[in-house]
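Subject: for your reference before the review

Hello V.,

The reviewers asked for a structural picture of the protein, and I figured it would be easier to keep everything in one thread rather than splitting it across files. Below is the amino acid sequence we used in the manuscript, unchanged from the supplementary table.
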Amino acid sequence: MNEAGTFDHARLKALFAKLVFKVGRQDAAAAYLGISRQRVSQLGSANPEHARDIPTWEQVWTLEDACGQSVVFGALAQTIEPPAVTPAACPLKETHDVVQASAALLPVAAALQAA
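And here is what came back from the structure prediction:
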């Protein structure tokens, strides 16, 4: 996100271009997606002419699965602050502890994924 309530298309395109590189560049990405190399280029292009021409979530998912890394979804997930859960919101203290431990592990998982 860039401004409240708006989606940052440029960031998605930049992350997609990084994903294309990780999967083996444009020719490999085109083969995985069943589209032309030129289309892959347009989806990751910073050219204002292609500013609103963004990859679908299915295309992102396909390439992340192919390279075994969560380049786009992982980066976008890091921008979301995990919710704080109060013990009163959970029916059992153990449930609260599990939720808090899971939230604490998100940055660790992101760091491991980036390595």
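For the response letter, the relevant points are probably these. Helices lie at 9-23, 25-33, 37-44, 57-67, 72-78, 93-114. The chain is about 65% helix and 0% strand.

Happy to draft the paragraph if you're swamped.

O.
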